[in-house]
Amino acid sequence: MEESSDLYDVLEANGSPSRDDHNHQCLEELDNVERLRRKIKFYFMNPCEKYHARGRKPWKLLVQIIKIAIITFQLVSFGLSNQLVVRFKEENLMTFKHLFLKDYVNGGTDMNAVYRQADVYDHIDYVLEQYGHLHNITVGNHEYEKNGTFYNPVTVCQEFYRNGTIYPGNETFEIDVQVQTDCFNVYPMYHPSLREALPNFQLHFKRMLTVKITFVLKAINLQTVRHREMPDCYDFTVVITFDNRAHSGRIMVDLESDVDINECRDWKVTGASARNIYLSVLFDCFIIITCISSFALCTRSVVNGIRLQFEYTLYSRNQVPWSDKLEFLNGWYILIIVSDTLTISGSVLKMEIQTKVLTSYDVCSILLGTGTMFVWIGVIRYMGYFRKYNILILTLRAAFPNVIRFICCAGIIYLSYCFCGWVVLGPYHEKFRTLNTVSECLFSLINGDDMYPTFKDMKQKSSLVWIFSRVYLYSFVSLFIYMVLSLFITIITDTYDTIKQQQQSGTPTSELQKFMSGCTDPPKSGMYRLDENKGLLNCCPGRCRKRLTSEA
């Protein structure tokens, strides 16, 4: 009996340490799971809940509010400046048309065409004469381009087929398709007409393709001074084209101008200090710093979400669906990061424009406009913390995959109508001349716009095509308005009803939500602060208890 009791004591002594280690290991694993639940739940909290949970200040929310205000102010100021630039270019283009195109009328397309040979020569002489007397007729501050002390000439170029004999009466022709270009320099200040400048110049009307008159005029945009901005110097490259490529007896006359914006060489502005002129540059620097801060905070949150996703995947032994993995990748943060990148690029370009290093107004407006649009869209993220607004956001996110699939299917039908309309109706309808105009016309029809003019403007030169156009338009309107749009709305409403029922039932719909539902600790419980302290000490709860027990 004594031997058996001794053996029992030995077994009990040997078994106790293993049982204690097993209990400690179980407690450690349970604590790790609970801590992971709290970390995930904390990650998906709103800024107010995070403040109550760990006392963390909502820096991202504060930065976004400041950024929205200053970026919107920056966009408005740049938009007003850009409007002045665009308006100056458009008004100069209209001025050049009235100065150099004979009998030009606003909006009159047929007036910009000539039908007789003598009219072509008269129009060319009119351009040269107007250019030679520019100082006496213009009300603007236009000036000729100079090369040193000499004025640059006006270039007259004629493009025509190299050789060709055409006899429409005999239905015979012989032509060399190689295009030859002859250019001549004319000085209208000294020779106001083409005959005086080029006595041997002759237009080959049967072989002629185009005649182009090119010259450069300079101007200064003084209206920017009122907005505390330095005026820009403009170089307008004016090209007047007589287009005879159709050889239909109608030569179209058109004027285009290409603008090159430069910094004025010598300038003096009184009434505006340098501090006021460069104040916007300092404001742009402040915006760049704010966007960099927002970029860093959002990038840190994205990285934390990816790390948390790895921890959850490791816990689930790599059996996590993609929908749950994507929950950790916050799309709103990605949107804000893209917005910050665009705003920083646009602000740097805006500073270059204001200091007259670059003149890329269009690129800058696209960057700033898109960045501001994304910033305002990002505000929806914070509205989603309210229950009534959140259901709308959840509906858009849930319906997005189905909407994309539906658009792909409907887009194939839409493209088929575009190609068919362009080929069949293009020669007979102004809105179907190009694929771009066809797409715009059909999209307007889907929205119920411009229906009657589209039907009415169809030319009745071909009865077969006219009948086909009616079948084409009626079928398109019926298919897309009564079927496609109705199905599209049905997808959204079905998703909305599903999300609403899920919110009312309150049951978790994914494995991630079921896992988080196991954590019932409210934000003010103090458990999240404990987890933060343990994370800083790099000590899990089970090991801490074991260490404290050993020290005791």
What string gives the helices and strands in order? HHHEHHEEEEEEEHEEEHHHHHHHHHHHH
| Low-pLDDT residue intervals, each spanning 5 or more residues | 1-13, 536-552
| Rg from Cα | 37 Å
Q: Helix count?
A: 18
Number of strands: 11
Note the main attributes of this structure.
single chain, 552 residues, alpha+beta, 7-stranded antiparallel β-sheet, two-stranded antiparallel sheet, 18 helices, 13% strand, extended, disordered N terminus
What does this structure look like?
By secondary structure, the chain is α+β, with helices and mostly antiparallel strands. The chain has 18 helices and eleven strands. Strands 1, 2, 5, 8, 9, 10 and 11 form a seven-stranded antiparallel sheet that branches. Strands 3-4 form a two-stranded antiparallel ribbon. A two-stranded antiparallel ribbon has the order 6-7. Helix 12 (387-425) packs across helix 13 (435-446) and helix 12 (387-425) packs antiparallel against helix 15 (463-505). The longest helix has 43 residues, at 463-505. The chain is extended, with a radius of gyration of 37 Å. The two termini are 37 Å apart. The relative contact order is 0.10. Mean pLDDT is 82; it is low at 1-13 and 536-552.
Short description:
By secondary structure, the protein is an alpha+beta fold. It contains 18 helices and eleven strands. Helix 1 (2-43) packs across helix 18, helix 3 packs antiparallel against helix 11 and helix 8 packs antiparallel against helix 10 (331-354).
